[in-house]
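Appendix C: a fully annotated inverse folding record. The material below is reproduced so that readers can follow the format used throughout the book. The structure is listed first as C-alpha cells, followed by the designed sequence.
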C-alpha cells in the first residue's frame, strides 16, 4: 500500500470517527432510531410529595438536615417482639451492607408511644426516638403507614428512608426484601457522592 493511499484511509477513518456519532444523534432525534434506556426501578415506594420532617417533629434524628441517610423503623411497641427484632435485624444488615458509606447512614428506631428497648448489639448502632408528646409526627406516621405497611394500615408502623436534607422520601411495604433496599441505598449513596 502506498503512503498516499494509507493517508487517505486514515483521514477517512478519522472523518467516520467524528461523523458517525453526529449522524446517530441526528437520527435518534428525528425518530428514525428508537432507543430508550431502561429506567432503574426502586424497590421501595417514593413518597410524593416528600415530607419535610422538621414540620412534624423536633427530634434531630428525624428532622435535622445533615450528611446522613436515615433508615427509620417506626413501631407502636416499646418492648421489641419477634417481628420487631426481625425488622431491626434487616435494617442492621442494610446498614452493614453500606460498607464504606456507613458514616453516611444512620439507623433510627422510632417508638410511637415511648422509647423502644434495644438489644446490647443494636443499641450502639441505632438511634432511638420517642414520639410521645408529638401528636403531629404521630399523625404523620399513622397516615404514611397506610402506604408503607399495607395490612397494618393505620397502626403508624413502617419503614422509611429520610434524605440527608431532612425529607422523608421512600417507604417500604410490609415484608419488603432487604436486598432490594440495599440496592436502593447503593444508588442513593452513589448519586449523593457525585
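Designed amino acids, in order:
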Amino acid at each position: 500500500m502506498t503512503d498516499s493511499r494509507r493517508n487517505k484511509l486514515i483521514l477517512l477513518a478519522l472523518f467516520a470517527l467524528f461523523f458517525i456519532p453526529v449522524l446517530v444523534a441526528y437520527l435518534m432525534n428525528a425518530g428514525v432510531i428508537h432507543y430508550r434506556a431502561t429506567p432503574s426501578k426502586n424497590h421501595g415506594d417514593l413518597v410524593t410529595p416528600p415530607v419535610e420532617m422538621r414540620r412534624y417533629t423536633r427530634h434531630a434524628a428525624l428532622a435535622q438536615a445533615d450528611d446522613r441517610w436515615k433508615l427509620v423503623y417506626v413501631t407502636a411497641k416499646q418492648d421489641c417482639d419477634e417481628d420487631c427484632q426481625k425488622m431491626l435485624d434487616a435494617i442492621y444488615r442494610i446498614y452493614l451492607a453500606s460498607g464504606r458509606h456507613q458514616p453516611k447512614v444512620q439507623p433510627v428506631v422510632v417508638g410511637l408511644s415511648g422509647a423502644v428497648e434495644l438489644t446490647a448489639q443494636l443499641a450502639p448502632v441505632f438511634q432511638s426516638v420517642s414520639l410521645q408528646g408529638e401528636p403531629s409526627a404521630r399523625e404523620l406516621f399513622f397516615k404514611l403507614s397506610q402506604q408503607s405497611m399495607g395490612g397494618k394500615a393505620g397502626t403508624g408502623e413502617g419503614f422509611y428512608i429520610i434524605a440527608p436534607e431532612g425529607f422523608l422520601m421512600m417507604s417500604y411495604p410490609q415484608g419488603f426484601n432487604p436486598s432490594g433496599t440495599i440496592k436502593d441505598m447503593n444508588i442513593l449513596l452513589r448519586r449523593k457522592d457525585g
